[in-house]
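Wed. Picked up where I left off yesterday with tRNA sulfurtransferase. The coffee machine is broken again, so keeping this brief.
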Amino acid sequence: MEKLVIVRFGELTVKRGYTRLEMERLLTRAAEEAARECGGAKFEKEPGRLYARGDVECLKKALSRVFGVKSVSPAHAAEFTELSDIATHAKQIWGDLVTGRRFAVRAHRVGDHPFKSLDVAAAVGSALATSGGSVDLEKPEVELYVEVRGKRAYYYTEVLEGPGGLPLGSEGKVLALVSGGIDSPVAAWMLMRRGAHVDVFYCNLGGTLALLHALEVVRRLLSWSYGYNARVVVADCGPVARALRRGVKEELWNIAFKRALYKIGAEAAKRVKATALVTGESLGQVSSQTLQALAAVEAGIGTPVLRPLIGMDKDEIVKIAQRIGTYEASVKMPEYCAVFSRKPRKWARREEIEEIDLALHDAIAEVANSARMVKKRELEEFVKSLSPPRDLEIDAPPSDAVVVDLRDEEAYRGWHLPGAIRTDVDDVLTLVDRLGRDKTYVFYCYSGGLSLDVAESLRKIGIKAYSLRLWRTSSPNQTRDSTSQTDKYTDL
Ligand SMILES: Nc1ncnc2c1ncn2[C@@H]1O[C@H](COP(=O)(O)OP(=O)(O)OP(=O)(O)O)[C@@H](O)[C@H]1O
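Structure written out below (tokens, as returned):
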């Protein structure tokens, strides 16, 4: 008797002809890459399924993450000549397991045999009853599955659900705009599940630490990308934030920034030959996700924008993020606040969109041209090459530090840390020059992304600067957790 893993195909089994062959080829290729995590496997093909031989415990987990797979079962397999052989094998495998327990045998049969599935269940049930177990088909403590296919029978108790969907690569290529937050990795995963090769675009506004956080989310997302060496396009979006603060009305910053993202994303999509962009927007979640705002953001972009989460509730999205393993990293992602506007508009007129495009034109071109591209298999090396400044984030300012609030005047008037002075981000250098480059500076903002970026920039020119970890501790509404984003129309 040998041990193996049964890998059952999902939707692709309704496909026919060349499409079916191609999908099976892609799924097998992805399964082979997944199996490498377990030291490899020997695969055997059968219509509608694969059998994998190797480290069964490891393989069952890895193969249940391959798109196109409906379910996976670690199983014993053995050839038989007569029905009594199946009963004998079942007793060898499960004799100890059923002792003193209520069990049910679920039998299934494919091929020509002189017996029916019910006969298999009855024979196995009687054999196991002699081991001290009792049959209970309604409320069993343990369910035993026997699948008879041709000359072989498979015995298993575990059925692990796979992701379903279609094999990766069967449905073209898209570029997912991934912020590192909760939603966009889920949106990207959903396109992977429907068979698209997904490349990733990330626009960084928070310095090296934010980039590292985002890349951790991306790494987790791409751990699903078996069989495809996905590309990750990383852009430094600082020039866009600066152009926007200089040339766009504050109430339109949200719409303008998203529009810039789409435009840079559309350029990156051309570079990686992706047919569409994917975003994590869900209708009405925040002010830039109203219908009018979405229309303003995507007007004339020239590349289709797919929004697989558009009709989903936040808690549904969170559940998927938890299941696919991106959630934990996403909630640690600092929200950018370099383009935070207190009263964001939910719409923009056509002339305003034209003004935005004019104001951001050069910055968008600069960012698009300087974006870097890294392949999934080089991501680890790339991450190692990034060296974030040490101890950039602190929990409390040193007593001699100058504490600087980077939020707007209204927020500062409402509340600020004792002794903090306020400045606009674009005036930070002027402030530092006025107060002295030899002092220690501690910055805070709405959510941490901007203060990290400012502190890191100052460190680069030799100034002792820190970002206060205020945004993770002061108020749950200032983190990227699920509750903060369910507040309708509040862009953090
Ligand atoms: N810095 C970024 N880099 C790449 N894409 C981004 C970035 N910020 C936002 N996006 C894209 O724009 C979409 C809308 O952004 P917004 O901040 O309104 O979304 P969100 O609902 O908070 O999504 P997420 O949870 O993914 O951040 C995101 O879902 C994502 O697809």
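Quick read: The chain has three domains: 2-161, 173-385, 393-486.
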